[in-house]
Amino acid sequence: MSSPILLAFDDTTLLSPLYGEHDRHLARIEQLLGVNIASRGNQVRIQGPHSAAEMARDALNALYAKLRRGMTVDLGEVEAAVRLCTPATSETGLDLFGAEDLAITTRKRRVAPRTANQGAYLKALKLNELVFGIGPAGTGKTYLAVAMAVDALTSGKVDRIILSRPAVEAGERLGFLPGDLREKVDPYLRPLYDALYDMLPGEQVTKRLATGEIEIAPLAFMRGRTLANAFAILDEAQNTTPMQMKMFLTRLGEGSRMVVTGDLSQIDLPPGTRSGLADALEALDGVKGIGLVRFASVDVVRHPLVAKIVDAYDARDGGGKKPRTP
Predict the structure, then answer these.
(1) Integer distance in angstroms from the first to the last C-alpha of the chain?
(2) CA-CA distance, 138 to 297, in Å (whole number)?
(3) How many CB atoms lie within 10 A of CB 254?
(4) What string of DSSP letters covers 30-60?
(5) E strand spans, 89-159
């Protein structure tokens, strides 16, 4: 056990949001890093293995700096700060301050990467006209892509956003579902709507959907189109066929950007049908100008149990990685 690390914060008005109600933020850092943190007034004492205590110190300093800039801190931000202070993250050159440099500000919220891979993903989205985001649920693949698309639209970089998903369960034959066209496709596209309403006021979403600045449509509706000056996102791409994927990718027009997201561990295609996402990753391997970011369970930013669930399924299905402990 190394010598304790001592911290002192000069702005006492920020101590409550820094420590959290009943010191819950400090308790979460203790749980994640295996250290002991004692607070007394504006002073904090961190005891534990040297590397873990240093990470706790860096996380607290980063969170304090965030509060001083007028931003808020919740448990999600605390967990993000810890992830961004780990040695593996440091090797990528991304810390909490670097993450803030990559942040996207929309009408309703500020979206910053909470893991190193999320930072790499945002960098790829800024640098490449076509980006693949591959990995398990809860890693922010679609959410961050929608945030980037909204930013591009509101800043005038593109004229419209096109969000698409394959309607796998209906086999693209949407006539079997009750209701009009919108009622038929909405269940498949609801996650995209949810992300939009997180980024823009409701009336803005409704207005832009009505004018066509934002279009949400099943993949089948993309055939024969050229998407110019648009930001196109294909979600749940693991459920496309190779022909559908090629059709979508070749819609890319002048002044457009395209993002393809999916999870190859959750393919819902009929048995024996090759995933268009897997096929595209194989066919496009080594092609310059295409960004590829692979997420893992460590990047899951939903409930902590989600990461454990992902690991458990991977271990059972032959991944060999044992489920993580708290």
Answers:
(1) 21
(2) 9
(3) 9
(4) HHHHT-EEEEETTEEEEES-HHHHHHHHHHH
(5) 104-105, 110-111, 130-134
What is the per-residue pLDDT for 182? 56
User: Tokens at residue 58, please?
Assistant: 């860096």
**Percent of the chain topping pLDDT 90:** 49
Q: What is the DSSP letter of 107?
A: S
The token pair at 122 is: 């945002």
Identify the H or E element spanning 101: helix 96-101
Instruction: Give the E-state strand segments of 173-305 in sequence order.
Output: 214-218, 230-234, 257-262, 290-294
- Single out the residue of 137, 150, 158, 98 nearest to residue 299, CA to CA: 137
Beta strands in the chain (DSSP E): 5-8, 36-40, 43-47, 104-105, 110-111, 130-134, 160-165, 214-218, 230-234, 257-262, 290-294
| Spatial CB neighbours of 215, under 8 Å, sequence gap ≥ 6 | 160, 161, 162, 163, 209
**CA 279, 117, 80: angle at the middle one, nearest 5?**
145
Q: What's at 108, amino acid-wise?
A: K
- pTM (predicted TM-score): 0.74
Token pair, residue 163, equals 């969000």
User: Which of left, alpha, beta for 9 (phi over 0: left; psi -120 to 50: alpha)?
Assistant: beta
pLDDT digits (tens, 9 = 90+) for 33-43: 999 999 999 99
Q: In terms of Cα–Cα distance, which of 166, 203, 201, 199 is closest to 185? A: 166
Q: What is the CA radius of gyration of the chain?
A: 22
What mean pLDDT is reported for the chain?
A: 84
Measure the CA–CA gap between 260 and 258, rounded to whole angstroms. Answer: 7
